[in-house]
């Protein structure tokens, strides 16, 4: 399963009965949100609004809005298959093949992998139409005003491209952009993100401007990589190529040197001036609360390129679960094998929708020694964007972290609050509303594993779970209808 571009994915979803075309007139302010919110919360299809009042460009929303659609978007029938591919890749790296045949096979796999690298092309669909100078007007696209108190319309599913001013390595990240006027938007680079790092460096180096390009709509795996918390120098386009099993075609922008996906629907080219900031927000955010106004960099658009008859893609966020929850679920699954490289005791992890990723992580571990649960908390707090997590709950390996009923039962039974809470502090997601200072604050870890004697756990005398004998279960199974049950 491989999608050439966004319209290819639209066709696929339609064939699967997973896309609804809406031809009734709709308003890009609020109305699309209300429709989409209802559809997302009931597990409904992707929506293509073909008749947005005042615009001739259709709006695509909710393409990732279920586990199944997200799996398809990333080229697999189910997420387990994707996790299997990631594990296979890691095995190849840390399990040297023995014997000639195995070595040849591994070599073949590496050559295969190398063919997934991005390729630069000269002719790109995303440059079929080029608009420059005074004709540049981003209001030509149906950019959504999502929620009543929003400060204006926001571009919500962009792939923002910047280059590290020191290493030249490009980054692709998804950061919302508030439209201020026809050639200016906000750039919502939160404190701990890679785009912000490039912006900070350009400021420190005294650069007059930082080139920025923004791709809207490419194949769905490529779009997703913008939301993935990859290490700063890991190339999102190489990851997209691995997912698609085909290198992403990239094209150089018309007015700067940045490379954008050639199959994008729309590209905005421009720059940010280091030090120029303007209030951004409010915005109805994925925490379910508004993020209020705060200063952020300003993006100046100098050129728009697009396909003929482009599709404008958007993702709606708000009170969870929304579409970003499903985009994040894939991240959780794909990153689990990578997390296990550093913390091999980790068995499974769940970032429930209600926790908006940074508020709550539940992790199960194969516990071996006293203090092990606390070691894992600190390990997670030291790992990339996991450092922003406010609450970590650690449970034993046999607990199903995805079953919130079981988690609540185990946690409340197992903890001694006087010794199983770890209070810490550190960087906090900018969107966190509880911490008193933006971007930094308190954290809590709850060690709900079974306590060992050294941890004061009832002198090692931990009571067993109540489980019926298998023989009795089999007996009752065999006689079930005799008792009058169907
Ligand atoms: C729909 C959507 C909107 C997002 N909006 C923002 C945003 O406005 N600002 C931000 O810093 N991160 C935002 N994120 C999260 C980032 O995309 C994510 O942290 C990603 O890792 C950023 O890329 P980076 O690690 O290369 O900085 C958003 C994610 C999604 C799925």
Any descriptors?
5-stranded mixed β-sheet; Pnp Oxidase, Chain A; globular; single chain; 486 residues; alpha+beta; UbiD C-terminal domain-like
How would you characterize the overall build of this protein?
The chain is of the alpha+beta class and 486 residues long. Among the domains are: 116-313, Roll (Pnp Oxidase, Chain A), CATH 2.30.110; 343-460, UbiD C-terminal domain-like (3-Layer(aba) Sandwich). 29% of the residues lie in helices and 24% in strands. The chain has helices at residues 6-15, 31-41, 67-73, 79-94, 100-114, 194-204, 220-225, 236-244, 323-342, 372-381, 404-414, 417-420, 470-479, and strands at 19-22, 46-49, 59-61, 119-120, 129-132, 154-155, 158-163, 170-173, 177-181, 184-186, 210-216, 249-252, 259-261, 266-280, 283-284, 290-291, 294-306, 312-313, 346-350, 360-365, 391-396, 421-427, 440-447. The strands form five sheets. Strands 5, 6, 7, 8, 9, 10, 11, 14 and 17 form a nine-stranded antiparallel β-sheet that branches. Strands 19-20-21-23-22 form a five-stranded mixed β-sheet, sandwiched between helices. It has a four-stranded mixed β-sheet with strand order 1-2-3-18. Helix 4 (79-94) runs parallel beside helix 9. The protein is globular and about 75 Å long. The two termini are 42 Å apart. The mean pLDDT is 95. The structure holds flavin mononucleotide. Residues 156-157, 171, 173-176, 188-190, 193-195, 226-229, 315, 317, 324, 327, 385 line the site of flavin mononucleotide (FMN). Flavin mononucleotide is lined by residues 156-157, 171, 173-176, 188-190, 193-195, 226-229, 315, 317, 324, 327, 385.
């Amino acid at each position: 399963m491989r999608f050439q571009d966004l319209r290819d994915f639209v066709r696929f979803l339609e064939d699967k009965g997973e896309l609804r075309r809406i031809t009734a007139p709709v308003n890009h302010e609020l109305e699309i949100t209300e429709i989409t919110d209802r559809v997302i919360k009931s597990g409904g299809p992707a929506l293509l609004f073909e008749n947005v009042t005042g615009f001739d460009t259709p709006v695509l929303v909710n393409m990732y809005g279920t586990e199944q659609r997200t799996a398809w978007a990333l080229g697999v029938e189910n997420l387990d298959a994707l996790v299997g591919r990631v594990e296979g890749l890691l095995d190849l790296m840390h399990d040297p093949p023995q014997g000639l045949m195995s070595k040849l096979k591994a070599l073949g796999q590496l050559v295969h992998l190398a063919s997934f690298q991005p390729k630069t092309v000269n002719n790109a669909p995303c440059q079929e139409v080029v608009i420059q100078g005074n004709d540049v007007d981003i209001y030509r696209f149906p950019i959504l005003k999502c929620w009543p108190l929003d400060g204006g319309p926001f571009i919500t599913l962009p792939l923002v491209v910047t280059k590290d001013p020191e290493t030249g390595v490009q980054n692709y990240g998804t950061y919302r952009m508030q439209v201020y006027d026809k050639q200016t938007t906000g750039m919502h680079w939160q404190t701990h993100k890679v785009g912000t790092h490039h912006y900070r460096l350009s400021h420190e180096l005294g650069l007059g401007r930082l080139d920025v390009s923004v791709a809207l709509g490419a194949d769905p795996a490529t779009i997703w990589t913008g939301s993935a918390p990859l290490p700063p120098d890991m190339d999102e386009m190489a990851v997209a190529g691995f997912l698609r099993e085909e290198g992403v075609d990239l094209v150089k922008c018309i007015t700067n040197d940045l490379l954008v996906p050639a199959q994008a629907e729309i590209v905005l080219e421009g720059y940010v001036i280091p030090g120029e900031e303007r209030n951004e927000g409010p915005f109805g955010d994925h925490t379910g609360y508004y993020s209020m106004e705060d200063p952020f960099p300003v993006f100046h658009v100098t050129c728009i390129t697009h396909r003929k008859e482009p599709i404008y893609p958007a993702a709606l966020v708000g009170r969870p679960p929304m579409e970003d929850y499903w985009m994040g679920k894939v991240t959780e699954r794909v990153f689990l094998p990578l997390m296990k490289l550093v913390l091999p005791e980790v068995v499974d992890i769940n970032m429930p929708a209600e926790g908006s990723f940074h508020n709550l992580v539940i992790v199960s571990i194969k516990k071996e020694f006293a203090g092990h649960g606390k070691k894992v908390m600190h390990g997670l707090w030291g790992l990339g964007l996991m450092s922003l997590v406010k609450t970590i709950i650690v449970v034993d390996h046999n607990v199903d972290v995805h079953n919130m009923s079981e988690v609540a039962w185990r946690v409340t039974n197992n903890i001694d609050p006087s010794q199983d809470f770890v209070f810490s502090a550190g960087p906090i997601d900018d969107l966190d509303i509880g911490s008193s200072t933006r971007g930094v604050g308190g954290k809590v870890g709850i060690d709900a594993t079974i306590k060992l004697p050294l941890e004061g756990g009832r002198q090692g005398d931990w009571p067993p779970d109540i489980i019926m004998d298998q023989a009795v279960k089999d007996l009752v199974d065999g006689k079930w209808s005799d008792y009058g049950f169907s």
